[in-house]
């Protein structure tokens, strides 16, 4: 039984974990209950950890600190989807615990697992249980107990795996949708695959990476976080250079009462905060008790933050010099949608969305190309928001994520963008506008499923209203008519129909005519979106 590991051992363990998730990614994908063809958990986790494996293969005989820091850095930039971001946070916390160590025993390994859990929970203000978070938390707790009994790393890791299996089996009871479908959480199972593969590598049983694998279509990550009402208007961000021994957890508690969407990163020398609140003055007044502020200017961001960022980057992307105060980048798929956003004044388009969640690195590169001091990011997909939120700490630019969950929300946000306004004014106006638009989408069922009372067959048309399944049918016209009647009854006055790459213009025009006839008091517009997977995206305001 192995007592300790070094950097080379960690390297093999991580590469083995990446190979296992790649091998099992389709199995993880199939755990998604909602059968629409969106960004899959397995694919997102695989692409995230594979970014680290690729960098580790270039690193010969690394120290433990080097191997873990390379892993954390690569996964931070390669993170895709919510599951990928959480996986990267777990590894980031582990790297923090392993910093300064040449070897790792059972006690330190248990501490590293717990640091990973802490990093993930701290970054997410309202974590959802019955997910990868729960599995990782309980596994880390068991590892700590085991380390007090036996300090051999292999013994501790075995205990973590045993508890992860129990925790994973229980996720079906913690999430009502999982319970109804009779499946466990996909992200949690992915973490278990990673832990088991690490043990195999530790025992000299490396898992061979599959050759000639073909990327599968991605699907929306099932283990999303609970939706939050858009209530608070000010997106407030600041960095405090820590002074004294004040506990930042007290600041976290204060800010949690003051607003929502709180992310507080306590990184030894600095405290970095992102919070949505109606009283930013109160947030700043409380925060100054913990140290002096660092102004969010490019020069000061470089002074306080770039050294730490550059230590994690082997090659920094080019950063455009600011020529204006505010710029915007948007995520979308489809040439028509790209044209829509460009015409509305977006500075950069990030290709991606439903079928390919862009990584944090993809978003970072787009942000750095914008010649502006502050860059607003429109994710336009709930599974991309977390990846976008990681960008701010990787660039000297000030990055603000407008939490748009759909393309129509992103369009509405841009209609409320004022290039002459301040960052605060635009953040408030654009964020408030998100709640004014209803989004409808029509796609197809990627597999058979029994979901929310609907008996779904592969190939059926699916209508989605907001985030809920509205209806299913083998006739798309039936669903379009039902949606039009729903819009009519809601009293919405402006309807925009974006038709996808698989819809001919003449058929799209008939759809527009249908909505015009059923909603005679509404202004109906038809635009070519060219988006894949979704035959129609429809907004109603």
Automatic annotation (TrEMBL):
InterPro entries on file: DegV_domain_contain (IPR050270), DhaL_dom (IPR004007), DhaL_dom_sf (IPR036117), FakA-like_C (IPR033470), FakA-like_M (IPR048394), YloV-like (IPR019986)
UniProt cross-references to SMART domains, sorted A to Z: Dak1_2, Dak2
Domain DhaL residue range list: 8-200
GO MF entry, a single one: glycerone kinase activity
Recorded superkingdom: Bacteria
GO process terms (BP): glycerol metabolic process
Record Pfam families: Dak2, FakA-like_C, FakA-like_M
Name assigned to this protein: DAK2 domain-containing protein
Organism: Candidatus Faecousia excrementigallinarum
